[in-house]
Fold:
Amino acid sequence: MKSEKKQAEMIREISGVNPYKCMKCGKCSASCPSFNEMDIKPHQFVSYVLHEDIESLVKSESLWKCLSCFACVERCPRDVKPGKLIDAARQLVVRQRGETYLSPDEVPELLDPELPQQLLVSAFRRYRR
Amino acid sequence: MQRIGVFVCHCGSNIAATVDVKKVVEMARLEPGVVHAEDYQYMCSEVGQAKIAAAIHEKHLTGVVVCSCSPRMHEATFRKAAEKAGLNPYMVEIANIREHCSWIHKNIEEATEKAVILARAAIAKVNLNAPLKAGESRVTKRALVIGGGIAGIQTALDIADAGYEVDIVEKTPSIGGRMSQLDKTFPTLDCSACILTPKMVEASAHEKINIYTYSEVEKVTGFVGDFTVDIRKKARSVDMTKCTGCGVCQEKCPSKKAPSEFNRGLNNRSAIYTPFAQAIPNVPVIDREHCIKFKTGKCGLCEKVCQAGAIDYTQKDEIITEKYGAIVVATGFDTIKLDKYDEYAYSQSKDVITSLELERIMNAAGPTKGHLERLSDGKPPKNMVFIQCVGSRCSDNRGKSYCSKICCMYTAKHAMLIRDKYPDVNVTVFYIDVRTPGKNFDEFYRRAVEDYGVNYIKGQVGKVAPQPNGQLLVQGVDLIDNKQILMEADMVVLATAIEPDPSVRKIATMLTASIDTNNFLTEAHAKLRPVESPTAGVFLSGVCQGPKDIPETVAQAGAAAVKAIGLLAKDKLMTNPCTAKSDELLCNGCSQCANVCPYGAISYETKLINDHGIREERRVAVVNNALCQGCGACTVTCPSGAMDLQGFSNRQILAEVDAICR
Structure:
């Protein structure tokens, strides 16, 4: 397990986001459709990365409640893009678990005709590595 | 051979902490022409200047090099000191070892080496310096003020009261500007028109003030003290000398579908119009785009009803040329366009408005006659939401990076006025920070919260969604309670960022006045010369320089006036002697220098030239020293090397380069 400082750095690197630009306006939390489901709110996410409290972050339910709708990314007036931070934290967790990809042979039996195709494409994109 | 003295300043620890000044002195002594070198703690002090004077007398110096701060700070100081001691001031050169050296280096050895090199270059230049004499130019005792808002009006009044002629050029049909659109003003809540219109009247009645409305600056030439300006007087289609301002033409005009600029497009006006009742001058203009007569050739009703016979459809734009000694820019601001902020539904709902639009709605002369009502259905609102910082403080590509400064106060004003007049209306303000620096400003905002029950929520609004029932669903956040808020509102008011009026770009280009990335005009010095442009003779008044409220604008307008008066009070200006000079023997009369000269300072004469015994008539370049600003464009263009800049000759500059590369 890497140190929290290293992990915070990784989140910043993966997301390409500079959390120091945040002016704490809360527009991300004001825009978030999953706000009520989250234990750590989008605007708090930025401070957690800023204060390098990654342990709480990766344990948080919020990581998996974020819909990646990117409303916060679109509307953030400071280009901090909390959605990208959340995405990066999620990737960090997924990477640490290892064995996170499907082999192409496994895919057909998982297919459900009801699944939107876009979901499949984005799943492949996400788990390709 | 020159006899040069070198003076190295410590600037307290500003230079001495990073540069070994003793070493600089020691190394300077070895340079050709140097007969004296010393260091001192503060060269710019009385004692420091006395040291320079003493050395000039004792060592019979013919040139001086001061190694100190930027020449922008103290070149004038040291040149004056040398002149007092009997030396030509242009024999003094500054080696900038502070801004260019000590402040930007950390390592003492590196900084010292660079300081020695900079001193060496300055010494090499002084070795080739020749005494120069400043010329004189005249001052036209008349000022031009561009923009007729409160900033321009106040500047014009102050200059005129000092006894100088002033022309105001205003692009709209009336003076008054943004302030005339406001209902009440913070923090005293006096009516904007009540305090503005007396000033408008005073300006129009002042014998020293001449107002050109519906006019624009078209071209500016010349320089400080002697500007020549072309002003386009747009065709008003109404004879100003005949019109009595009775207003019948506006009443009878059948074309009433032009959006009213004054009411921010919230209602319509006639094609022949004055922007508002107290307009000055009270003479309407015909908007030719919307006039039926101009569009179809039929109508002509205004001409028929005008008892004074003032309507003139044949009027054409007229260009007048005037001379001015000083120009004040007071072009003001506008609110930004909101097309990039679709989440607030500004374009989708009539009930989402900007604060400036709310000013018009609250105003008795506005589209709703001062009744607070929804523009969609005319119903009085029950719940109002104000959103702060819309387009301000953004570092994305949608808004402005700066704080618009006036919004916190006007929102508190709006909230308070609404709660006062309509106590049953709930007012909620979503804010990021409440910024109220200013006399009685924070007390004003606290009154809104404590006495008027305005609900201030720390947080932003993410989305405004118009509902089928006409309500606006506002989704926001309360960061103190850490709760998301969903509330219904009848009206949403956006504290829209302000930006310099778009016309300022063209004007700045004409004046060669610099503007920043946000189109605000740049000051000559952010702290010490805040109302002057770096371009001599151009002064800044009001929001064109940066966001400010009315009291600040009026204060700055007065300051700009004082600076302009200071210039107009002079009979003659000393001109910069560092101007271009053409060597007649080398000039081949090719005209390339005249083509690049931005000031029109170069002309050609046919002269009898004696070229080493050969006498012949040649066409040669001649520089007008009063017009030349010493930019040097001609010297680099001249293919034969005939053109040279006095005080910055090619030989001097190459000597500096050689000294640096040695």
